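Q: What changes when heme C is included in the input?
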Amino acid sequence: MRVFSFCGLVALLASAPAWGAGPNTCISCHAELDDEELVAPAKLMEQDIHSRQGFSCVSCHGGDATVDDEDESMDEAEGFIGKPGKAKVIELCGKCHSDGAFIGHYNPALRVDQVALYHTSVHGKRLKEGDTKVAACADCHGAHGILPANDPRSPVYASNVPKTCSRCHSDPTYMKGYGIPTDQFDKYSRSVHGRPLLEKGEMGPPACNDCHGNHGATPPGVSSLANVCGQCHPINNELVNQSPHKPAFEKMGIAACETCHRHHDIETPSDQMVGTEPPAVCIRCHGPDKFPKGFAGAGAIRASLDSLNNQYRAAEALVRRAERAGMEVGDALFDLHEAAGSITKARSTLHTFNPARVEEVRVAGTELAGKSSQKAQAALDELEFRRKGLALSLVVIVGLGFALFVKIRDIDKHRRRH
Ligand code: HEC
Ligand code: HEC
Ligand code: HEC
Ligand code: HEC
Ligand code: HEC
Ligand code: HEC
Ligand code: HEC
Ligand code: HEC
Ligand code: HEC
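A: The predicted holo structure follows.
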C-alpha cells in the first residue's frame, strides 16, 4: 500500500491551503447537477471533518479543481479516480489514516491502526478474497460528510452503531448464502445492554463494536469473551476466574459468561436462574446423577438467596408499617438499605459458585435485616405504649372532669339551700 513519505507530507502540507482557498470547480459544478447522487457529495462536504482541515474532493478523487471544464477537471491524467470500488476505498482512506506522521500533524491523538486492524477482521479477510458485500470504511463512516466518531450524528457514534451494522446484518436477503443468523440487532435491542443504550442513550452499556472491535470485527472467541465482559464487569470476572467453573468450562471449550447469560440477548438476571428446578441454568449441566456436587451447591446457593430475601421482605414490611404510622424510622431504614446491599452482594458472590461464600453474605445480611426489624418493632412498640398512655390519661381526665362536675353541683346545691 502506498503511504506518504515525509517529503510527500511536506509537499502535501505546502499545497493544502490551495484546496481550501479559491473556487472549487468540483463543488460548484456538482452542486448544480440534476442527479441527487452527484449533488449530495458537494452539499455534504461542508460538514465533513476533512474540509475543516482544507481537504476536499481532490484529496480523495484526484482531478483538477481549478478548471471549469468537466473533462479537464475529471481527467485521469490528473489522477482522477471517479467512484472507487470497495478495495480501492481501503487504500484511499488508508493512504492518510495509516500514516502516523501525516495524521499526527493534524490530530496527534488519532489512532492510525484502522487499516491494519481491518485486515484482521472477517470483513477485511473476505474483501481480500473478492467479496464486496462486506463493510469497507465508507459503509460505516459514509463517504461524504464524514464526522468525528464522538459526534452524536456520526453513524459510528455508540447509539447509532447498532443501526449501522444492522443495515447489512439484519437484512436476510443481503446476508443470504453466508449461513449466519440475522437476528443480532433484534436480540440486542431487547437486551440489558441494548435497551438502556438505544432507548435512553446511556453510554455505559456496550454497542456492537465494544464486543466485536471497531475495525477488527470478528466474533469474540471463547478465550477472549470473558475479557470482553470483564472490561466492564471486573468483579464477576474475577470471581468466575477463581471458581471451579473456570477449569471446568475451559475443558468443555465453552465461554464463561456467555454459557449462562448468552451474548446478544442477555436478560436481567433473577434468582430463578440459580437452583435445582427450571428455569435455573444450573440444571443444564447439574443433576442428582450428573455433576451432583454442583447440583447440591445450586440448591444451597438458592436457599441462601431465598432466606435472605424473606428476611429482607419481613423487615421491609415492618419498617413501612412504622413509617406509615408516622414514627421516626431513619435508623431502621439505614439498616434496611444495608441489608439490600447484602442481597446485591450475594448475587455477585454467587459467581464464586461456592455455597459457603454465599452463605457468609446471607448471615451478614440476615443480621442487618434483623437489626432493621428490631428497630422498626421498637418504634411500633413505642407507638403502642403511647397509645395506651393516651387512653389512660383520657380515662384520668374524664374521671377528674366528672369529679369536678359532681363537686361543682354539690357546691351549687349547698349554695341554693342557704
Ligand atoms: C463541469 C461540471 C463538473 C466538474 C467541474 C466536475 N464534475 Fe464530476 N461529474 C460531473 C458529471 C456531469 C458527472 C456524471 C457523468 C459522469 O460520470 O461522467 C460527474 C461524475 C463524477 C463522479 C462519479 C464518477 C463515477 O465513476 O461514477 C465523481 C467521483 C466526480 N464526478 C468527482 C469530481 C471531482 C473530484 C471533481 C473535481 C476535481 C469533479 N467531479 C468536477 C460534472 C462535473
Ligand atoms: C474522504 C474521501 C472523499 C472525499 C473528500 C470526497 N469523496 Fe466522493 N467518494 C468517496 C468514496 C469512498 C466514494 C465511494 C462511496 C461508495 O462506494 O459508497 C465516493 C463516491 C463519490 C461519487 C459517486 C456517488 C455515488 O453515490 O455513486 C461522487 C459523484 C463523488 N464521490 C463526488 C465527490 C465530490 C464532488 C466531492 C467533493 C465535494 C467528493 N466526492 C469528496 C470519497 C470521497
Ligand atoms: C488526505 C488525507 C485523508 C484521506 C484521504 C482521508 N482522511 Fe480521514 N482524516 C484525515 C485527517 C488529517 C483527519 C483528522 C482531522 C481532524 O481531526 O481535524 C481525518 C479525520 C477522519 C475521521 C474523524 C476521526 C475522529 O473521530 O476524530 C474519520 C472518521 C475519518 N477521517 C475517516 C476517513 C475515511 C472513512 C476516509 C476514506 C473514505 C478518509 N478518512 C480519508 C485525513 C484523511
Ligand atoms: C464495521 C464498521 C467500520 C468499518 C468498516 C470502519 N470503521 Fe472506522 N470506526 C468504526 C467505529 C464503530 C468507530 C468508533 C469507535 C468509537 O466509538 O470510538 C470507528 C472509528 C474510526 C476512527 C476514529 C479513530 C478510532 O480508530 O477510533 C477513524 C479515523 C476511522 N474509524 C477510520 C476508518 C478507516 C480508515 C476505515 C477503513 C480502513 C474504517 N474506519 C472502517 C466503525 C468502522
Ligand atoms: C455493508 C454491509 C455490512 C456492514 C455495514 C457491517 N457488516 Fe459485518 N459482515 C458483512 C458481511 C457480508 C459479512 C460476511 C459474513 C460471513 O462471512 O460470515 C460480515 C461479517 C461480520 C462478522 C463475522 C461473522 C462470522 O461469524 O462470520 C462480524 C462479527 C461482523 N460482520 C460484525 C459487524 C459489526 C459489529 C458491524 C458494525 C460495526 C458490521 N459487521 C457492519 C456485512 C456488513
Ligand atoms: C456483549 C457483547 C456483544 C455485543 C454487544 C454484540 N455482540 Fe455480536 N457476538 C458476541 C459474541 C460473544 C459472539 C460469538 C458467538 C459464538 O461464537 O458463540 C457474537 C457473534 C456475532 C456474529 C456472528 C454470527 C452470530 O450471530 O453468531 C455477528 C454477525 C454479530 N455478533 C454481530 C453483532 C451486531 C451487529 C451487534 C450489534 C447489534 C452485536 N453483534 C452486538 C458478542 C456481542
Ligand atoms: C462496555 C461495557 C460492557 C460490556 C463489554 C459488557 N457489559 Fe454488561 N452491562 C454494562 C452496563 C453499563 C450494564 C448496566 C445497564 C443498565 O441497566 O443501565 C450492564 C448490564 C449487564 C447485566 C445485567 C445486570 C443487572 O443487574 O441487571 C448482565 C447480566 C450483563 N451486563 C452481562 C454481560 C456479559 C455476559 C457481557 C459479555 C458478553 C457483558 N455484560 C459485557 C456494561 C457492559
Ligand atoms: C454458571 C452460570 C453463570 C456464569 C458462568 C456467570 N454468571 Fe452471571 N449470573 C448468574 C446467575 C444465576 C445470576 C443471577 C443472580 C440473581 O439474581 O440471583 C447472575 C447475575 C449476574 C449479574 C447481575 C448481578 C451482579 O453481579 O451485578 C451480572 C452483572 C453478571 N451475572 C455478569 C456475569 C459475567 C460478566 C460473567 C462472566 C465473567 C458471568 N456473569 C458468569 C450465573 C452465571
Ligand atoms: C455448562 C455446564 C454447567 C453449568 C451451566 C453450571 N455448571 Fe456448575 N459445574 C460444571 C462442571 C463441569 C463442574 C465441575 C465438575 C464437578 O466438580 O462437579 C461444576 C462445578 C460446580 C460446583 C463445584 C462443585 C464442587 O466440586 O464442590 C458448584 C457449586 C457449581 N458447579 C454450581 C453451579 C451453579 C449454582 C450453577 C448455576 C448457576 C452451575 N453450576 C451451572 C458445569 C456447569
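Observations recorded in class: The two ends are 132 Å apart (CA to CA).
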